[in-house]
Design goal:
The complex is a heterodimer of chains A (233) and B (248). Chain A is 73% helix and 0% strand. Chain A contains 9 helices and no strands. The radius of gyration of chain A is 21 Å and the shape is globular. The N and C termini of chain A lie far apart (68 Å). In chain B, 35% of the residues lie in helices and 11% in strands. Chain B has a 5-stranded mixed β-sheet. A two-stranded antiparallel ribbon of chain B has the order 6-7. In chain B, helix 2 runs antiparallel to helix 6 (195-208). The longest helix of chain B has 16 residues, at 231-246. The chains are: A mainly alpha (233), B alpha+beta (248). At the A-B interface, helix 1, helix 2, helix 4 and helix 8 of A face helix 6, helix 7 and helix 8 of B.
């Protein structure tokens, strides 16, 4: 391969992030990490239905492996950062692309979820900060958070105490609904963004994305719901 | 039938524009939308006013020259049609219609409802072609094209470059147009030698023109007069990524 060919290939690869498709690639890669976490976190959370001992033991198990735990946290933070930063750059591009808007504009088929990704995302991000302060660091006063004592964790009690407060439970449900909307569009859109699309399976992929988004929401929302009606106490 | 029109009037590219209210009286429902505008314009000319400028050519829905927003929808409420093929029978007596030009930084307004779509020409010039040697026409059967590929390519080639996709897209993206052109050539054997170069060059040009990104909301395919599917956008993403990441 000649020097010229090498040079252009390098430039092309480097320039990927300058066109929107490159930014989308980063959004998809980070989005996959976040989606995997959402599934894993839900699987962990649902152990609340197996009783306090089980959930508390799970919390203790996670904390007994500080190395992997912090690696996972770092990867998550990087994924959130890349996802947010890329979407911010794309949002700027979008704003520049139409300096003068329409007096009247209709949205023909676009789903509400697909048009509100730029809202559901940041609001969700803000909720996650509160969520960590609430249940990881226990920094929110008045929610009955109990620190771990000698390898004994109180994740179960902390969740139940927290969701006793209607405002906390409602905020959680609202955040999960936004998450579900984000997934409703994002889970199939991510395939389209990296060019995975075919008339054979794309309609199926779309339906599967909608079903998964609803199931994830049902799983998460069931917890504050069961606490509120007293099934989990 | 009688209608009330709110039309974007703008003297030239530099002048500020505004919506102006007009009454369209005694409109024949069998008229096309553009013929209805001609009636309104004749009234304006008779009064000594400047007629409403709009782009048009074939009046058969195949050239891609016409198009503007009607009540916030590119080419109006009927699917799979251009404004020249949109007839007044699809509207009701007394309807109030807002007519606005395509809105995009890459499509500056020339006058009223007419916009400059040279940005599309520059995207084509960047790579929307195949290089062939001139001379005698080759034997017709010498390059075989599978039927399915020919059909898909033809579906993409139906794009008339009207710009409705850009106008309708909430992000002002030209992904459907560029995707259609990249797919049209990339699906055929004749398009293979320049496939990688084409994908990169056209995507880069599209970016330079200032079009927005694609969020896969599908507004473009809903208003496309040629019903081109967003499948072509995925094909463009695929071709671009392959070319940029693993192309030689």
């Amino acid at each position: 391969m000649g020097a010229v060919a090498m040079d252009t290939t390098l430039k092309q690869t480097w320039g990927i992030y300058q066109v929107y498709i490159g930014k989308k690639l980063v959004m998809v890669a980070s989005g996959v990490v976040l989606v995997l976490y959402i599934f894993g976190h839900l699987a962990g959370n649902l152990q609340i239905y197996m009783g306090p001992a089980r959930l508390n033991a799970y919390a203790a198990f996670l904390h007994s492996h500080p190395g992997p735990l912090w690696i996972a946290r770092t990867v998550m933070l990087a994924a959130v950062g890349l996802h947010g930063w890329s979407s911010f750059l794309l949002w700027l591009e979008k704003r520049r692309a139409r300096p003068i808007g329409y007096v009247k504009k209709d949205d023909v088929p676009a789903s509400y979820a697909s048009r509100t990704m730029m809202w559901s995302g940041p609001i969700l991000g803000a909720f996650v900060v509160f969520h960590i302060l609430h249940l990881t660091t226990g920094s929110v006063p008045g929610l009955g958070f109990r620190e771990s004592e000698q390898e004994q964790f109180f994740a179960y009690q902390n969740v139940v105490n927290g969701f006793q407060h209607p405002a906390v439970a409602i905020a959680y449900v609202v955040a999960i609904v936004l998450l579900s909307m984000h997934l409703y569009h994002g889970l199939w859109s991510m395939f389209q963004s990296v060019g995975i699309s075919h008339r054979r399976y794309t309609p199926l992929l779309k339906r599967a994305a909608h079903v998964v988004a609803i199931l994830v929401a049902a799983g998460y929302i069931s917890i504050p719901l069961c606490v509120t009606i007293g099934l989990v106490k | 039938m009688n209608l009330i029109l709110h039309v974007w009037r703008q003297k030239n590219a530099d002048a500020p524009g505004r919506m102006v209210r007009y009454e369209a009286r005694d409109i024949n429902p069998h008229m096309s939308f553009l013929e209805m505008l001609d009636v309104v314009n004749q009234g304006l000319i008779d009064k000594g006013e400047e007629p409403i400028a709009y782009d048009h050519d074939c009046h058969e829905g195949i050239c891609g020259m016409c198009g503007f927003m009607i009540n916030g929808v590119a080419h109006g409420p009927e699917r799979g049609t251009t404004v020249c093929q949109l007839h007044m029978r699809h509207f009701k007596d007394g309807d109030e219609l807002y007519l606005e030009p395509w809105r995009s930084r890459a499509f500056p307004v020339i006058k009223d409802l007419a916009v400059d779509r040279s940005a599309f020409d520059r995207i084509i010039a960047a790579g929307g072609y195949i290089s062939v040697r001139t001379g005698n026409a080759p034997e017709a059967g010498s390059i075989l094209v599978p039927k399915e590929k020919a059909e898909l390519s033809m579906d993409a080639a139906a794009c008339i470059g009207c710009g409705a996709c850009v106008a309708m897209c909430p992000n002002g993206s030209a992904a459907l147009f560029t995707g259609a052109k990249i797919s049209h050539l990339g699906l055929l054997p004749q398009g293979q030698p320049e496939r990688d170069r084409r994908a990169i060059a056209m995507v880069v040009q599209m970016t330079k023109e200032g079009f927005g990104h694609c969020t896969n909301v599908g507004e473009c395919e809903a208003v496309c007069p040629k019903r081109i599917k967003i499948e072509v956008i995925a094909r463009m993403h695929r071709d671009y990524l392959r070319a940029a990441l693993v192309g030689d």
